[in-house]
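Review box. Two proteins, two foldings.
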Amino acid sequence: MSTTATTPETDPAFAGIDLDKFPTARKLVDRCKDFFSEMENLTPGAALECHLNKNYGPGNPYYEDFCKFVKTGLDEGWVAFAPLDGPKYRRSRVLNPCAETRYFSITTVWMESEDEYSGQYHAHPYGEINCVVCVDDGAQLKGMQGWQGAGWTSPGPGTHHYPQVRGGSLVALFFLPAGRISYDIKPGK
């Protein structure tokens, strides 16, 4: 687990990337805009997670495009480029919340571990939507409803946790309403 507390206010990886420099990132943002038009009036939480896994999981054009753009972004160097705990835990903000994304932020987090590994403890004031992009087939992200391989997690408003990975490498492509995430909460509070 990382002991360095970086926050959106102190972390340059939260500044967003230059979409003109990375055309694949622009394609991801454009595809996210379409997705957000379908999600904007839905609330993150268990019901949305179930809905996403049933209707937007592997095989769905949104999911497949997100995976393709994220994996290309790894090769191009704009996905999860800022280390939080060495190469196994990295993050970068693709785009800050703005009108074109219906005020969702778009962020990528790389997590890699065969054994269970925990990242930075944090809270979701307005919830979170995570697209789990597996780089290794057996990789899983722990959501509020349990372990999830390829598909989605969606912690609800007010939830908090350590993000956890096991079984290999993955990228969490996550969307935050209003870009809200809090790193000042302590476990057990």
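Next protein.
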Amino acid sequence: MTTNTRRVAIVGAGPVGALMAVYCANRGWNVHLYEARPDMRLPENKAQIQNRSINLALSVRGLTALKATGLALDDLIMKAGLPMRGRMLHLGKEGHLVSRDYGVHGECINSVDRAKLNEDLITAAESMNNVKVIFNHALRRADLDKGTLELENRATKEIVKEQADLIIGCDGAHSSVRSSLMRYIRMDFEQEYIPHGYCELTIPPKIGPNGQLEFAMDPEHLHIWPRHKFMMIALPNPDKSFTVTLFMPFANFEKIHNESDLLDFFKKYFTDAIELMGKELLIKEYFKNPKGSLVMIKANPYHYKDRCIIIGDAAHSMVPFYGQGMNCGFEDVRILDSLFSEFNVKTGSTPGETDKELEQALQAYTDRRAKDLKAICELALYNYVEMRHGVTSPEYLLRNKVESWLHLLVPTSVIPLYTMVSFSNKPYSEAYARHQRQGFWLGIAGATIGLGTAVGLAMAGWSQRRHLKDVGELFRAALVNAAHSVQKMIQ
């Protein structure tokens, strides 16, 4: 039988689709990358394409996938990335500042511009000889058994038919590939809109003493205004501005009808932000920019035989509060590619024959990845509560501090959830399970530390307080004892 070079159709040229094209091209496959939008790199299209809101936070999982291409894409993307070493909380209506580091070893997440990242990845894919990028083509339907795609040329309205050995859906939360896939398999599908929406705003650069543009706030932090039932965040941009996103229930948005309502709301909850943004810009952007919705999507299985698979938001759209949407999508690409290697998927395919190795690889992806994708979707929603409310809670702060200190003392036994999710490649489900196990013992550790400190102070005696060089020494002694106890319990 004649063997042909494998033809892959990737639908969706967002960050995940573009990276998937690079990985497939590295395998020697012929890749067609279809995108419904016009080429976002062209100046005449930039103004027409509405930027998606919420800056991207690039962390270890995403960087690992970029680096694994062998094309130094991690270095390319990080040239325009801005490291953020922690959260800067703006507490109270006046915005009292409190800094909280992400990790005990100086770990950072990185603020990256969504549009530039996407453009760079498309350019990287297009530079490969076996990749063709086709813009303005939207998938209408796919016959997965025959491997045919019907696409509409949005410029001419012409229907174009294409052929592929493997169809990969990277076309987002409202995936057309997923819609076609559902006709072939018994897919469990769940879609949920949370009652909160978002609006994008801007903090512009300020003019420094030397007349040059400067950041209006510390650029090494992700800034958060936690207000319990809602919040606002801000991430730095290379042009010295901050992209600000206001998250709150749609019911709150609906109460703001005019400029007076808006300013009264900000004076009540975000007083310091008014000066940072400027009243005119705040009013202009709030009423001009759309109020976006936030949707969670879960699907399973992700594939059909050796013919089709969905990854990224097409398979698992999550709310943005853990900064893992893109990182998880990039990890999808890396893991899928690793399975191609594990099951020895060949460069070529034989027309009319089932590719057993490819079918096994796709099945393994569904089997192994499902629990991790479910876990990160749940964690993303959980982190919204932490960001808008938990970071202001004394109980949360105590646990966070205890967990960080224990991580320093017994780094392999106690690892903060955020560290496992953002600064490692540990499977999400394992990170979640470990966090739940640690939670019980950390509660005991916190109680032990508090009790140990109190008993120690009592035994020392108030009359002998001058001999205590630092009450913190006693606190640390109790912490060390608790650390050893927690280590034994967890092990």
